[in-house]
Hints:
78% helix; single chain; Growth Hormone, Chain: A; mainly alpha
Amino acid sequence: MAEAAPPPHRARADPALVVLLAGVAAALHVGKLPPAVTALQDALGLTLVQAGFLLSLVQAAGMAFGIAFGALADGLGARRSMLGGLALLALASALGGAATGAGALMLLRAVEGFGFLLVVLPGPALLRELVPPERSARVMGLWGAYMPLATALALLLGPAVIALAGWRTWWALLALVSAAVAGVLARAVPAAAGPAAAPRPLRGLAARLARTLSASGPWLLCTAFAVYAAQWLAVIGFLPTVYAAAGMAGVTTAVATALAALVNVAGNLAAGRWLQRGASPLAPLALGFAVMGLASIGAFHGAAGDPDAGLPLALRYACVLAFSAFGGLVPATLFALAVRLAPDAGSTGTTVGWMQQGSAAGQFAGPPLAAWVASQAGGWHRTWWVTAACAGAGLLLAWALARRAGHAARAASPGVR
């Protein structure tokens, strides 16, 4: 009797790649609003102040509750947290696409902020469990690129979708993307993947918070991410304004800004490869912060209001590209350090949540500070004072983080001297 043929092999998506995709899908909801501001003002009668709140509400969740949601994600388990966050993003975006007033849209924007946190905070812990140790640094480099990649995609795709089908379709499309990614993640990532979830997710939340906030490593990571995010968004966020003042066409400005965000991905990937080869975290952190500080001087030298008008626009844009590309070395290294400097494996999400809180605070404070300096100086040519100060603080933090990582490595291997 002939043996029954074996069932056909069904290929499964790489679980780590799906987790990375989930991060990008979540970050698209952060980046979806800037291309839609004008359309929302026309359709819903939004004031400029309301539009500003819509831009910041998604970050307000991270600034106020990042560490708390990180602790919650640790309790839920990484896979369950990511699935819940993607579902929340899909629902809020679908409802937002049907909103008829500014109030409902702002409320749903805040909900999207919470969904975003539930997706991205457990990502590093889950990736650490899904990939072998020899691939972990490289994968963390990929994870560090989820935000700039999503930002570039939103800046490039959003205007086209909105022009063709309206902002409501843009919201609905991203709701479908989140739902689809959640379905793929549920099938591709094993239920047992990631650190074990607590039987009662809220039990032990206060203890996880206390362990994280009493350790020096998470504080250094949080502060380093804050000074990085403050200067990165201060430059990239105002790039369209600076170049519009220089007479650049709208389409050209949009593409230039998207490219400036996209090259940040290259820095993240380079950091992952560098760390994978055994480099000290001081090397990518110091290089990233140093180039950001120097390149930002060139990026704003000759900007509107500079009486000397030194550098031509093309050279200033090359400085912006260097600023973003080398800056990408920083987040990838910080995410790689997060899994090493967390108090324990069960507090990785909490540590990343504290980092997210620092990032959100930096994004909240950096652009207004840069705008205030520009208004006082009568142009953007003194904005480098803000970015250079952040870069200088970043260099000091890089040294402190490298020392702390060395202590952690020696503690983990007591036989090594």
